[in-house]
Amino acid sequence: MTSRRSLLLVMTAAFALALALGAAYFLMRDDPSGYASQDLDGRTVEWDRRPDAEGSAVRETGERFEVASVDLSVPLLSAVVANGEINPPTLTDAFWYRETAELGGPGTSVIALHAVRGGRGPGNALVDVEGANPALRVHPGDLLDAGSVRYQVTGTMIASKQETAADPRIWGESDHDALAVITCVPTDDRNAVIFATAVGNTE
Description:
- By secondary structure, the chain is mainly beta.
- The protein has one domain: Sortase, Chain: A, CATH 2.40.260.10.
- It has helices spanning 15-21, 161-165, 168-171; strands at 5-6, 36-38, 44-47, 59-67, 72-79, 94-97, 107-113, 127-128, 135-136, 143-146, 149-160, 177-185, 190-201.
- The strands form three sheets. An eight-stranded mixed β-barrel has the order 4-5-6-7-12-13-11-10. The chain has a three-stranded mixed β-sheet with strand order 1-3-2, with no helix packed on it. A two-stranded antiparallel sheet has the order 8-9.
- The protein is globular and about 45 Å long.
- It holds the Pfam family Sortase.
């Protein structure tokens, strides 16, 4: 993939939804629409597939998503799954998906964001996509702030989109106030996932 193309994050909103539709994941087709937007450095990046910004029903939250250990701080918006796909509609923000648990509430909340090869999306702070072997920059014990809720990282993984879409730690029931942060790995069609548990408030 060239430096002007962003590989899109693909997974279902919930494992139950995937089962209901008879598939564990959706593969996105190339969409030669010429759609482009700016990354965090103001660089123009052409997308592989146009995001459905209207269908995502994006809402402002007035909050931020922050990971101090990697110097990441971006607006935290909320969205819904559009057309059975999670495809955050910007390269500059983090998105909490409203079909998942409330942030800080019982169950697992899901936040998704994009990484860009040759550019800088918010996901680039979380995973190294420029080297030969993609690797997470965030590690167990690190703290994440999603709005007013503080989480501590408990684990990470890099997995195929099929595995991500079917992982019960993300889409299944949880007795914990948990968080899964998902970003794409644009070099090899996988996802990077960070698992965390709520440990208190940011104030």
